[in-house]
Design brief:
The structure is a homodimer. Chain A is built from 15 helices and two strands. The first copy, chain A, has helices at about 5-20, 30-40, 45-60, 65-85, 100-105, 105-125, 135-150, 155-165, 170-195, 200-230, 230-235, 240-245, 250-255, 255-275, 280-295; strands at about 95, 100.
């Protein structure tokens, strides 16, 4: 697929940018800084940064304009994974085939590393040297990231997720959970990317949000499908893990075929939302397709 | 002491402001919102908000100008307490005589409530309707809060604290730990308060930071003194708790008398730093004295 080299170049680009923005692992708090590096520079696919950069590209700006936004969303994503893996949460020992942060370090350090990464995400935006982004845009980026990552966004979604284990959720409740848990941060990717360029109209910002929310849902439905269909080796995690926990999923609520149809429908909706963009948004379109067609 | 009514009015003021800024405890994520309310509206003394308001007063502005800054620092403080009390951290069951957040709810909810409160602290600043504070000042407030609360500030100090249990720290290392762990957020109180007014000169901002760092150290030394001298009932926590954990303290390093002298010295330094302010800064001066002379 033609978008793969783009994803790979974004991965390299953001890994370098992240490394430059993390505290140097030295001094009395070295263990904390090591844990932050470990939790962030972890071989992740960096789909969220790719969405930031593709948005910057859609608005005809050089990718560097998206560096701080990409780092901020990825730090937020990584902090949430570190906390998500904790014994009191999902209690995962492995992530991408490597020990999770609290296993490689210890629980206290993992909690603090997550906390520090969240603060750093906001700091990265305020410290941005990007000349395209003025103070008002930085503030809008911070407002959007804090809302999307907080109690009405990502964390709210995780709380609903926790509360839903063993519960019968309706399809609309499941959708609400995922729109918060995954969709909100994906929305932050395209919106922060667009705000960083200082070139997006209100209509373009709204279209990007619609795109992101649909992509977020498609992403989650695909996750549920892979959890049923994929094998453990390809996924790097236990196949059927969510099923074992008796968590409500799209496949358990809709069945496999209807879940695939819903993923397709959300994909179409995402593509349609980008109608007001020209072919510079093709990478964004290809990313949406990639998310639906990935097998891990 | 004449500052007590001021502290009490700040307590009432910020409690109301916090309540207005927390998510309404309803809907599918109600348990999370309840935990956030529980962790924030907890009968705390609100010394940090009082420092914000006293700074606003020193700069001759109405207290309302400090509401968002006061809420932001207090939310940050409360999130750090919730995470600090977790079993993997200090493992405390009681705070101010009431069950800690993870006891009253559960560990996962306490982790998420802390995470959500951190995000909300930044959101509160971006959403501020305070007409005295322009975009540039809001950004400076966010930059300062993220730095003071992150890996080079509060969280960095907690990491040093964790690493120091059973270790022999030098006096300068102990000072560094407390300057990060407590001093940084106290610095955020006066600096955010000053930035919110948009009236502080560079010299005044620098003086307030010096004041805050000394007050922060005096506060911590006093804590160590109270831990040796105070009785359990007055403190609301186990007397000698830090001693039991074999944590380095000012009293263990300096002895009780020298620790008292050092607290006095930091107090004098704090007061001297305010020399360029007129009598409108008297409340700030009285707060410094209150912190040294408190017995709980």
């Amino acid at each position: 697929m033609s978008v793969k080299p783009f994803i790979q170049s974004c991965q390299e680009r953001v890994n370098l940018a992240l490394q430059q923005r993390l505290p140097r692992p030295e001094g009395v708090a070295k263990r904390l800084y090591d844990a932050m590096h470990y939790g962030v520079l972890n071989g992740g696919k960096r789909l969220r940064p790719a969405l930031v950069y593709a948005t910057v590209k859609a608005l005809d700006c050089p990718l560097a304009v998206g560096d701080d936004a990409a780092c901020a969303v990825e730090m937020t994503h990584c902090y949430s994974l570190i906390h998500d893996d904790l014994p009191a949460m999902d209690d995962d020992d492995l992530r991408r085939g490597k020990p999770t942060c609290h296993i490689a370090f210890d629980e206290a350090t993992a909690i603090l590393a997550g906390d520090a990464l969240q603060a750093q995400a906001f700091e990265v935006i305020t410290n941005s040297q990007n000349s395209a982004t003025n103070s008002d845009n930085k503030l809008r980026m911070i407002a959007f990231l804090s809302k999307c990552s907080g109690s009405l966004g990502m964390i709210g979604g995780q709380a609903i997720d926790l509360a839903s284990v063993g519960q019968a959720l309706s399809l609309s409740e499941l959708k609400q959970m995922h729109t918060c848990k995954t969709g909100a941060l994906i929305n932050a990717c395209v919106t922060l990317g667009a705000l960083a360029t200082n070139r997006a109209s209100q209509a373009e910002l709204a279209a990007l949000s619609t795109f992101a929310i649909s992509i977020g849902l498609a992403f989650q439905i695909k996750d549920d499908i892979l959890d049923v269909e994929g094998d453990t080796q390809t996924l790097g995690k236990q196949q059927g893990a969510d099923l074992d926990l008796n968590k409500p999923t799209y496949t358990s609520l809709l069945g496999l075929e209807k879940a695939k149809e819903e993923a397709h429908r959300q994909h179409q909706k995402a593509i349609a939302a980008l109608d007001l963009f020209d072919d510079k948004a093709d990478t964004l379109r290809e990313l949406a397709t990639y998310i639906i067609e990935r097998n891990h």
